[in-house]
Design brief:
- This protein is an alpha+beta fold.
- The chain contains 14 helices and 15 strands.
- It has 3 domains: 127 residues, no CATH class; 88 residues, no CATH class; 155 residues, no CATH class.
- The strands form 5 sheets. A 5-stranded antiparallel β-sheet has the order 11-12-9-14-15. A 4-stranded mixed β-sheet has the order 1-3-2-4, with helices on one face. A two-stranded antiparallel sheet has the order 5-6.
């Protein structure tokens, strides 16, 4: 009796090497242990074709297939086959190839048939629990709770991000887990993630996504740009003292009304002027926000009047990191250049009796500023 030959040519690094699920299919391909009793060779594979067709050698029993679960551990499978040498040998010893008048077919002795049954039972007993948890890489990533900025840092290209993410995920898997797919599948996942965010994609991704070309991303797919504006308002103060005015302002309820303004705060008070800082959600080119006007709706216990005068609108534009937290940005005091100029203007107009004298003065603080601001007076209600 000659010895058996074991031929397991599995892809390197695969924990469940027989697992193969074609795109669009609900489950993996059928997997099996194969025995060629004529050559006494034992191997394992999965069906490479869709459907129920089988090779003629299997149809005529010249080659035997013993089904196994597709997610069976490759290590456990190899160990099992080597342990079943006696059963494989009995099958091979009881085999012969005969001509049936049309084709050569395989015939087996009773002992060889019994060995086939014993091998089938041993597979269920030994291998049905020796499984690897297999998940398609895209499905696995979709079940995570990581944000797009974590999985695809905006400074990386799609290829760089996919390579980095794939390596990180594979390295973090438990020993009984395997991802089915490769870096190309991760790229597809990242693009599908971006596709679900159309209209809200952070601006930082615009260069790399627009450069891809296909799939196409355009301006409407990205979040509106962000900037900070400072508005100087002159409030009616009646006969109040400066201290009383400051106290009234600090306890006021107010709102700067404009469709592009997301959040506001009172930045400083210089009797009788109030400096309001506003976070803008806008696209500078589309909306021309440097010429934006605003109205101050206010409710001061002691300060009520028919009109509030917008003395100056000072604006700086900058794309800010996503996700945007309006309150955090306001509290951090970013883009302070506009604020510094606004304070100069506010203190300058506070020293003058009228807005006109401030705008016509050759010492106008705005004239010396290198930042371009719209200072067109706008009357609010």
């Amino acid at each position: 009796m000659s010895s058996l030959a074991f031929n397991f040519d599995f892809p390197e690094g695969r924990k469940a090497p027989l697992y193969c699920q074609f795109e669009g299919e609900l489950g993996p391909q059928p997997a099996f242990i194969t025995l060629n009793p004529d050559t006494r060779e034992v191997s394992a594979d999965y069906t490479s074709e869709l459907g129920t067709g089988i090779p003629m050698t299997v149809w005529h029993n010249l080659e035997l297939r013993f089904p196994v679960l597709a997610s069976v551990s490759g290590e456990a499978l190899v160990d099992f086959c080597r342990e079943q040498t006696e059963l494989f040998g009995r099958i091979c010893d009881g085999f012969e190839s005969v001509w049936d008048g049309s084709n050569y077919v395989g015939r087996y002795t009773e002992d060889a048939v019994n060995a086939q049954d014993d091998l089938t039972c041993a597979i269920k007993r030994e291998l049905d629990d020796a499984l690897i948890s297999v998940s398609r890489v895209g499905v696995y990533l979709r079940e995570s709770d990581e944000g797009i900025e974590t999985e695809w840092p905006p400074e990386l290209t799609l290829e760089q991000a996919a390579k980095r993410l794939y390596e990180e995920v594979v390295a973090s898997l438990d020993s009984d887990w395997e991802l089915y797919g490769d870096q190309d599948d991760v790229e597809q996942y990242l693009l599908e993630f971006m596709d679900t965010m159309r209209g809200e994609i952070p601006q930082a991704y615009k260069p790399v996504l627009v450069a891809l070309g296909d799939p196409a991303f355009d301006e409407d797919d990205f979040e509106a740009m962000t900037g900070i504006a400072y508005y100087i308002f002159k409030l009616p103060q009646g006969s109040m003292s400066a201290d009383a005015f400051d106290e009234a302002v600090s306890n006021c309820n107010y709102h700067v009304r404009h469709p592009l303004i997301e959040e506001t705060e009172i930045s400083e008070v210089v009797y009788p002027y109030v400096l309001v800082k506003a976070l803008l959600q806008c696209d500078q080119n589309e909306y021309g926000v440097q010429a934006i006007g605003a109205e101050l709706e206010y409710s001061f216990d002691e300060l009520e009047g028919p009109q509030t005068e917008l003395v100056a609108n000072l604006f700086e534009y900058e794309s800010l990191d996503d996700p945007i937290d309006p309150l955090a940005i306001l509290e951090e005091g970013e883009l302070t250049g506009a604020r510094e100029v606004a304070l100069q203007v506010m203190r300058g107009v506070a020293e003058c009796d009228t807005q006109e004298s401030t705008q016509t003065s050759s010492n106008d603080p705005l004239a010396a500023s290198t930042t371009s601001f719209d200072t067109t007076p706008v009357l609010g209600t």
